[in-house]
Amino acid sequence: MSRTFDELVAEADSAPVDGWNFSWLDGRATEQRPSWGYQRLMSDRLANVSAALDIQTGGGEVLAGAAKFPPTMAATEAWPPNAALATQRLHPRGVVVVTPPDESVLPFADEAFDLVTSRHPNTVCWNEIARVLRPGGTYLAQHIGPATVAELVEFFRASQGPQPEAWARRHPDAERAQARAAGLEVVTMRLERLRQEYFDIGAVVYFLRKVIWAVPDFTVRRHRSRLRELHERIQSDGPFVAHATRVLVEARKPVH
User: InterPro entries given for it (predicted)?
Assistant: First the structure.
């Protein structure tokens, strides 16, 4: 017997959303993965440098997947619940987790790192990345691309329509220009569009509670009528389909 709208929503609304692990969605939603395999690329780079920094590490889930860390390995995470998870996960492996009060400032000396990495940073402070990289150093990241999950965003913000300004900020052309303005040489800026499917309304609630920048004002109470409408649509038409966009970014600090 299928569960009711109220049961699905209540379950998802009470699920913990700390960290950056999406295993709660197993069997309830799917998302294609980018072809480049970011975690493998990151792991390969970390094994061949002497000092590295992972920015906005979340609960440390992605960084912890690296097979080997350099002698100096640091990570930043500004949200205290995630920083606590990252500390528990990464400290045993010798990674120093720092909780900066402001994501726009990296609390490290100039030219401290050979490699800076980040997976899905909320903001990208190109000048700070350039400052902490050593000459010849690399920034390797997977960014959220433009118009990611636009179908879902527009469903819950129908009265506001598309968000071209917000999406333009994520466009590879804009990020390429920002990286160059900070003095970095762009090696790679590669975008892929990836299919998502949500099989029940609980998956949608959980995703929007966890990925808070998708629909910044989202709460179950505020959006209950739209949630019910989407629940009925999934029941009648099958999974709700959206598309995530991801950008593989590699930029290098020139050797002067």
Answer: 23S_rRNA_MeTrnsfrase_RlmA, Methyltransf_11, SAM-dependent_MTases_sf
Could you say which DSSP state residue 30 is in?
E
127, two tokens? 């000048």
Q: How many domains does the chain have?
A: 1
Please tell me the distance from the alpha carbon of residue 195 to that of residue 149, in angstroms, as a whole number: 9
Domain that holds residue 23: 5-252
Q: How many Cβ atoms are within 10 Å of 219's Cβ, its own excluded?
A: 12
- Mean pLDDT, rounded, for 100-121: 95
Q: Give residue 154's identity as a one-letter amino acid code.
A: E
- Which token pair is 106? 């990296």
Q: Cα-flanking dihedrals φ and ψ of residue 181, to 5°?
A: -65, -30
Alpha-helical runs (H) found in the chain: 5-14, 38-46, 80-90, 126-132, 150-156, 164-169, 172-181, 201-210, 224-237
* pLDDT bracket for residue 77 (50, 70, 90): very high
* 3-state class (DSSP) for residue 104: coil
Q: What is the CATH number of the domain that holds 159?
A: 3.40.50.150
Identity at 249, one-letter amino acid code? V
**Which of 218, 182, 206, 146 lies closest to 16, judged by CA?**
206
